[in-house]
């Protein structure tokens, strides 16, 4: 049963999801035309589409990342076939459980510094803290550690918040001013963050993604497109999930207590369930390059699919009759991951899934175990149509007695 909502809380409806958008649902669970797209809401349909190697990526900044002048290699997110398999295999070493555990001391240090800052100031926004954590962690993995000026996280925000819609059927009307602003944001990111990192690694290789790309003779423009992809698909999405998980547990003292006093596997189960109900990327898009069949239904080449991840994750045929409720220990069919399709599936499944959960857990447990951590202000709930996910802003918390102005 859904718990009573606090006054002023944006959570509403009959489910435990904070970000559910009923207007995105179709009346039928079957593959159904919705405008120029075929929408999938059933879990099995969504998984079949994501696993199909004949379907190409469509959406999620495909046009923006593919239009960087001078770039010769598509980012790994948009690669297909053997080139994609080779790149995923070569870069997987940065995201294995062993590699992620190796990042543990770095993540712990960053999380401790952020909690210490909150303690000094007394009040801060969780979404600001989570942005800084997500950007710094991913920057270490990618190699964006030689910036000429501070403020990397704000420069990334600038080009992700450009107001575009990444749906393949969207009609974006960029004004000259907006086009200039977005181009300027990407240029600043390149000149202040990406270019210095490339120059540093040309002098001395390190164990990070940019060094690997240089070994593959990637140009500066190719590396820029890859960094844009990781900035949006890794940094921004992790920021939102940490904020959402913090808010959900601040709203539920029993869940918060269970979380902070549990083992790591049990904590991860709670985070996976929160992510199942509120996947950061709620819609994924694929395009059929040739005639194909999805769960027995023939579909023509050129068909573009919208996979409603949030709907698929609440499919009662897979998740159970209580699919819309929070239940971290639910029994699932064999082969169904606890987070559903929140990390995607198939060839383009998120490579940083384990890293995202690990860093979220390390920060959230450090934050939520403080008994005097209190909620000051509920977040506003908005949506980013580039990422096709939610944005939570202004989740303000108080910790201890402030010694300085926040």
UniProtKB/TrEMBL annotation:
PROSITE patterns: CYTOCHROME_P450. PANTHER family: P450, PUTATIVE (EUROFUNG)-RELATED. Keywords: Heme, Iron, Metal-binding, Monooxygenase, Oxidoreductase. This is Cytochrome P450. Coiled coil: none annotated. InterPro entries: Cyt_P450, Cyt_P450_B, Cyt_P450_CS, Cyt_P450_sf. Belongs to the cytochrome P450 family. It comes from Deinococcus enclensis.
């Amino acid at each position: 049963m859904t718990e009573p909502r606090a006054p002023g809380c944006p959570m509403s409806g009959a489910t435990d999801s904070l970000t559910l958008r009923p207007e995105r649902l179709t009346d039928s669970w079957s593959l159904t035309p919705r405008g120029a797209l075929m929408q999938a809401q059933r879990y099995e349909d969504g998984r079949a589409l994501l696993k199909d190697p004949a379907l190409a990526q469509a959406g999620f900044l495909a046009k923006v990342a593919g239009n960087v002048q001078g770039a010769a290699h598509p980012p790994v997110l948009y690669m297909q076939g053997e080139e994609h398999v080779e790149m995923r295999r070569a870069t997987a070493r940065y995201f294995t459980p062993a590699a992620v555990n190796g990042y543990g001391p770095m993540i712990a240090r960053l999380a401790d510094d952020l909690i210490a800052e909150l303690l000094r100031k007394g009040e801060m926004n969780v979404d600001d803290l989570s942005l800084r954590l997500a950007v710094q962690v991913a920057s270490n993995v990618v190699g964006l550690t030689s910036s000429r000026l501070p403020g990397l996280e704000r420069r990334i925000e600038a080009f992700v918040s450009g107001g575009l819609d990444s749906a393949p059927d969207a009609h974006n009307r960029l004004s000259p001013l907006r086009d200039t602003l977005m181009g300027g944001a990407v240029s600043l990111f390149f000149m202040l963050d990406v270019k210095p990192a490339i120059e540093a690694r040309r002098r001395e290789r390190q164990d990070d993604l940019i060094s690997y790309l240089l070994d593959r003779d990637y140009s500066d423009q190719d590396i820029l497109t890859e960094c844009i992809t990781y900035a949006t698909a890794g940094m921004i999405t992790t920021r939102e999930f940490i904020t959402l998980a913090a808010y959900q547990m601040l709203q539920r003292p029993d869940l918060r207590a269970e979380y902070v006093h549990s083992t790591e596997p049990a904590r991860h189960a709670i985070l996976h369930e929160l992510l199942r109900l509120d996947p950061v990327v709620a819609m994924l898009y694929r395009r059929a390059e040739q005639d194909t069949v999805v769960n027995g239904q023939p579909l023509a080449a050129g068909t573009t699919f919208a996979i409603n991840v949030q709907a698929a994750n609440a499919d009662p045929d897979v998740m159970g009759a209580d699919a819309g409720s929070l239940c971290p220990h639910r029994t699932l069919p064999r082969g169904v991951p606890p987070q559903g399709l929140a990390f995607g599936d198939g060839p383009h499944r998120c490579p940083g899934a384990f890293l995202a959960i690990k860093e979220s857990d390390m920060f959230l447990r450090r934050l939520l175990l403080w008994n005097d951590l209190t909620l000051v202000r509920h977040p506003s709930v908005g949506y980013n149509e580039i990422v096709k996910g939610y944005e939570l802003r202004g989740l303000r918390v108080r910790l201890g007695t402030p010694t300085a102005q926040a």
